[in-house]
Write a structure and sequence with these properties.
The protein is an alpha/beta fold. The chain contains nine helices and five strands, in the order H-E-E-H-E-H-H-E-E-H-H-H-H-H. The longest helix has 24 residues.
């Protein structure tokens, strides 16, 4: 199955504007979660579009302007770590996707999500491994990933030592070690296990 099959079937049913949406940063212990919603031109077929995690940073950045140049509309929304801690990451990811869809300048008449149930009056399909299996979701994944990565690179300049410029907030060995060397920042997710463990140990001292 190519990653155009879902879109081809939906277009054949008479739908005109298909939005794909995906989130990035769900497994991070620092920084916001980002979601992108995007509607691509009907004839768009950019080679190499796939799940952003399966692409190199260089490849994602090569695809980024190509995707935007063939987008009918796109929107990116972030939900910060405080909100993630308040409502949990699943709900924060869902909220980011729903808000991104609402911000599209062209209203979609069909939505494809990456394995996420959403609240909407628009017909939609949640696809397991959607960022691999759907071209439109793959495009959304790449846009969200590049924009979030750039934010974490900027934040790493303000908060050096956690290697966010490399790990983008994911719980690498060095990132977790930095919690004990430097403490937590205002961008860390205190509901996430490595941060919770650190806070418990500090409290017990």
């Amino acid at each position: 199955m190519s990653n155009f099959e879902f879109e081809k079937k939906i277009y054949s049913e008479g739908y005109e504007y298909i939005a794909g949406t995906d989130e990035v940063g769900r497994g991070c212990i620092a920084g916001p979660v980002y979601a992108c919603a995007i509607i691509m031109k009907k004839d768009s077929a950019i080679p190499g579009v796939n799940d952003s995690k399966k692409l190199t940073d260089k490849k994602r950045r090569e695809l980024f302007p190509k995707i935007l140049s063939e987008a009918v509309s796109y929107a990116v929304v972030s939900i910060d770590n405080n909100k993630i801690d308040e409502i949990n990451i699943l709900e924060a990811s869902r909220l980011a996707m729903e808000e991104a869809i609402k911000k599209l300048s062209v209203k979609p008449d069909y939505i494809l999500t990456d394995a996420m149930k959403i609240h909407t009056d628009i017909p939609y399909m949640d696809i397991i491994k959607g960022d691999i299996r759907s071209y439109t979701i793959g495009c959304a994944s790449i846009i969200a990933k590049v924009i979030r990565d750039d934010l974490m690179i900027e934040l790493s300049k303000e908060f050096p030592g956690y290697e966010w410029e490399k790990n983008k907030g994911y719980p690498t060995k060095k990132h977790k070690a930095a919690l004990y060397q430097l403490g937590i920042t205002k961008h860390h997710r205190v509901s996430y296990e490595p941060v919770k463990v650190y806070l418990e140990k500090v409290k017990c001292k």
